[in-house]
Amino acid sequence: MAAAPQPLVLAAHGYDALKCVIALNETQTPFTLKVNSSTAHLTIPATTTQPATTLSGANVIARYVAFAAGALAADDLAVDEWLEWEKYVLRVTLDKTALSTLIETKIKSATFAVGNSLTLADVVVGVALRKSLEWLPQASYPLATARAYVAALFARPAFASAVTAVIPVAAASTSPQAPTKKSLATDAQLLGKTYDHVLGLIEALFVEAVDTAFPGMLDRLQFKVEVSRTKMPKFGDYQCTSSMSIFTALKGSPNAPGSPRDVALAIIAAMPTNPVIEKLSVAGPGFINAFLTAPFVANRLELLLQQGVQASPIKKQKVVVDFSSPNTAKDMHVGHLRSTIIGDAMCRILEFQGHEVLRINHVGDWGTQFGMLITHLTEAFPTWKDEMPDITNLTQLYKNAKQRFDEDEDFHKRSKDGVVKLQAGDADSLEAWRILCEVSRKEYQKVYDRLDVRLDEMGESFYNPIIPRVIEMVEAQGITQDSDGAKVVFTSKYKQPFMLVKSDGSYLYDTTDIAALWYRLHELKADWIIIYTDYTQQDHFGLLFEVGAMAKILDPAKHRVNHIGFGTVNDESGKRFKTRSGETVRLVDLLDESKARMKVSLQERIAAGQTTLPEADVDHAAELIGYGAVKYFDLMRSPQSNYVFNYDKMLSTNGNTAVYLMFAYARLSSIVRKSGVDMDVLSKQSGVVKVTDPNEAALAVELLQLQDVLVFINKELATNWLCTYLYTLSEKVQVFVTQCRVLGSPEQNSRLLLCQATLKIMHTCFKLLGISPLDQI
């Protein structure tokens, strides 16, 4: 069955939103509007002229609305000319005098732009002129005809009601990142006495400089200033790359800069005096390099030493993180490794940032496999109620049941009947199900304890009671269809339908998942949901979120939802990692092997005199390093990538491994320990940190990047960035301790504090990754 046209859900910002809403009002097109921060979310009912591609840009959306309604002369060439003038002339003229002359020359009438009635040209040009005239003071730029034209348009009911609905968005969009000098930053922020991420402060300074050098660039063009870290310290600490984009945007306008370098020089000249940036330089075609001042860096380090490591201020949210999710009555295997440790790391990062995090284990504790397992259990062990057999070997139990299910037709039928009995609430079936779940739960917890992972179980069965009510909610929106007796939902984005109810009345994963979506958003009141599963479920969750929005369960203007589909763990041949016999590797076996190999390595180091680690501590150290190595070897990669599992590479003391990083941490701890200095007392002293050597500076500036990295992870959910940061930091530590003598040097106290600050940052990174470092190895 072909997918029916679906409502259009569009997002528009600022005055662009005003254009769209006016076009909808004037054409009397029904729509719903939700305003969130600087964004207006519009939902337009399906039409017979549904666009084939995604609509982008206010003028395009307004034209589509007018064309679909057969109104506002959307196909008139004269209207097109006005729209082109608005986009390519009016909108990009940033000099006030030139803009005033342009408007006075073009706007000759206070009635309509084309003909004797309202057209799409009036909607688009009217809004743009309103914004321009707000920027041009009337005392200096009278522009009587243009102001009368705009006043007449916005006296119309359709225009006036749009302003009432959208004006908070239009006002917010004047420049979300272009604060005035008063709101730029507090003195404490600029002096390095807060935890605000440094990249944000540098970006704010460049925003002010761009706004000063090119007035109107940010608010009228809604231009975004781009700032990032430099790759090489000799080119500075941060780099602004916006000069080329600004040059392109202004090209052809009056008094436009002659080159990107001219843009860069103008920005540098307009940079406000501040205690953050020591100097600015231009490189290449127009890159602007910024160097931090030594006092700012020292102040941030003192803050870290005296108050500990903290995240930068961020809006706090309630976040549901759905991860691990093993299937009941099966051992956790290497495939569960990724979901469990990536999800745990994300939870730790979000918790560190101050979010309220709900760690949900969506275990597979319901479904057709339980008919098979319960039937096997009750038949193979008829006295199970009085004398429960040892079923802790879940893998063997499942394999035995599956073999009978595949080979014995009568057993196959009895198993299917068993599912019906379980779902109907048969007492014996439910009791057997509870026992299987409890045994599984205890076995999982052994793994979670070893990995230091916390989870709250809320499996598939948890949602059974609310499924009928959620189905009614979906049906009430009129989006369900009958497909050979099944209830399905078709979308415009996905070919496959969303299976709400099977033809026999039973439920599927789709049903459970949309019930879970409703529960998490409306009962748990989550602002944000993150789900970790393997990559093969990407379309399933994309479809789930699409249907959730259509059913008004998920509000895109209010809720954030993310599915992270992780790749596979493979062997050297590129196939999924298995045992020699072809079995899936149990997660406990993988952890045991890693610990055993690390224990041998540590004992060899003791025998060779390479460590003073007491023999009694070897087992504990091997466990922490071995488990940490397993975690880091996975976390260091993009969650979406596949990777080859290799014990030798994972446990190597060289390169980007947890072992190397933990050894680096232990060596740095040893330097501080050997000094004999009371670091608590020294850390409380102000003015001790003096960053003078280039290697000191490189390490010190790197220490300030943790907050930047965490902000990026919060946005992109790329936990591997924390591993990259930790490894980069460790490399700079190695250069520092090699090139800068600490103990016995004239700079000893300052350098000890730099070591102490590094240990605090490294320790925080390890804990966020779920790894426990050792002071001595």
- The CATH topology annotation of the largest domain reads as Isoleucyl-tRNA Synthetase, Domain 1
Assigned CATH architecture of the largest domain: Orthogonal Bundle
Rg over CA atoms: 32 Å
Work out the oligomeric state of the chains in this entry: single chain
Uncertain segments: 169-183
**What is the assigned CATH homologous superfamily of the largest domain?**
Isoleucyl-tRNA Synthetase, Domain 1
* Mean of residue pLDDT values: 89
Total helix count?
30
Strand order of the largest sheet: 10-9-8-14-15
Structure commentary:
By secondary structure, the protein is an alpha/beta fold. It has five domains: 8-166, Glutathione S-transferase Yfyf (Class Pi), Chain A, domain 2, CATH 1.20.1050; 187-292, 2-Layer Sandwich (Gyrase A, domain 2), CATH 3.30.1360; 318-364 and 460-566, HUPs (Rossmann fold, 3-Layer(aba) Sandwich); 368-457, no CATH class; 587-769, Isoleucyl-tRNA Synthetase, Domain 1 (Orthogonal Bundle), CATH 1.10.730.10. Helix content is 52%, strand content 10%. Helix 5 packs across helix 6 and helix 22 (587-607) packs across helix 23 (618-635). The radius of gyration is 32 Å and the shape is flat. The protein starts with 7 loop residues before the first strand and ends in a 9-residue tail after the last helix. The model is unreliable at 169-183 (pLDDT under 50).
